[in-house]
UniProtKB/TrEMBL annotation:
One of its GO terms (molecular function) is DNA binding. The keyword Ligase does not apply. It comes from the Bacteria. The keyword Thylakoid does not apply. It holds the Pfam family GerE. The lineage of its organism: Bacteria, Pseudomonadati, Pseudomonadota, Betaproteobacteria, Burkholderiales. Residues 196-261 form the HTH luxR-type domain. Coiled coil: none annotated. Keywords: DNA-binding, Transcription, Transcription regulation. This is HTH luxR-type domain-containing protein. CDD domains: LuxR_C_like. One of its GO terms (biological process) is regulation of DNA-templated transcription.
Length: 271
């Protein structure tokens, strides 16, 4: 694991931690890179949680192709669906991914201060989120989007203009490091590219999560604790994953998922 100290000035992020993203991309299999790179960026910006993902903008909404959660329960993704329609931050992001937006959740100047945002405030409180910021980039024809959201649990430490600038600087580096990790994974499998969604789309949402965590090196017990289920449930889900993907070992599973840049769908994007 690479470790970084938070920079004295968050706008200096591009000088130190971003170089470590490429180091990580060269050293780690793709699923592990995604989780460790999130750790690097969250640590560098002194945040205690993050979500990274990509998907496609369709009719004013987002169809998520792939998402990775760092230091928050995975329910963050599925529970967001119930409050997404009322979220002005996501609506603004889908319309225009730049600039980075963020701030406090509650309070008289908070992002969700109106009476109509009560459910959003409850949702964020459930996941211990008092501050957040969201930024992304357009890909391909402009309707493909990648995004990164970072969280702080402490209401008294705002994610202000400097942190938002640092995230804006980090996003292109993050995207290029992920592309490098993907290409290296493809090279290790003989240059074969797996069509988007072809593997993880065969799995249920929870099965896909178990598969990715297990391929990234997590044990039954760690996965079970993170997902709030029994280890036997994880074992049973992995058996289904092996059957559906036609693999018979952890190594084979990692090889199948390693080149993936797409996966199951979570709708809409979590923050």
């Amino acid at each position: 694991m690479h470790h970084l100290s938070p920079p004295a000035n968050p706008s200096d992020l591009s000088l130190l931690p971003l170089l470590a993203l490429f180091d990580c991309a060269g050293d780690e299999p793709l699923p592990r890179f995604e989780r460790q790179a999130l750790h690097l960026l969250a640590e560098a910006l002194d945040c205690d949680g993050a979500v990274w993902g990509w998907g496609r903008r369709e009719g004013g909404a987002m169809q998520i192709r792939h998402a990775v959660v760092h230091q928050r329960p995975e329910g963050l993704l599925s529970d967001y669906a119930a409050v997404a329609a009322a979220d002005p931050l996501t609506a603004a992001f889908i319309a225009a991914p730049r600039p980075v937006r963020g701030g406090a959740v509650g309070g008289p100047l908070g992002l969700y201060r109106s009476a109509g945002h009560a459910d959003l405030r409850d949702y964020l409180a459930q996941y211990d989120i008092a501050q957040l910021m969201l930024g992304g980039l357009e890909e391909g024809d402009g309707d493909d989007l990648v995004w990164l959201t970072l969280y702080r649990a402490e209401a008294h430490r705002p994610l202000g203009a400097r942190e938002q600038l640092a995230l804006a600087e980090a996003l292109p580096f993050w995207r290029q490091a992920h592309r490098l990790a993907t290409r290296l994974a493809q090279a290790e499998t003989g240059g074969q590219s797996v069509p988007p969604s072809s593997c993880l789309a065969r799995l249920g949402t929870r099965e896909a999560e178990v598969a990715q965590r297990y391929a990234a090196g997590e044990s039954y017990k760690v996965i079970a604790r993170a997902m709030g289920v029994a280890p036997d449930t994880v074992r049973s889900q992995l058996q289904q994953v092996y059957r559906k993907l036609g693999v018979h070992s952890k190594i084979a599973l990692a090889r199948v998922l390693g080149p993936q840049t797409a996966g199951g769908s979570w709708k809409p994007p979590a923050r």
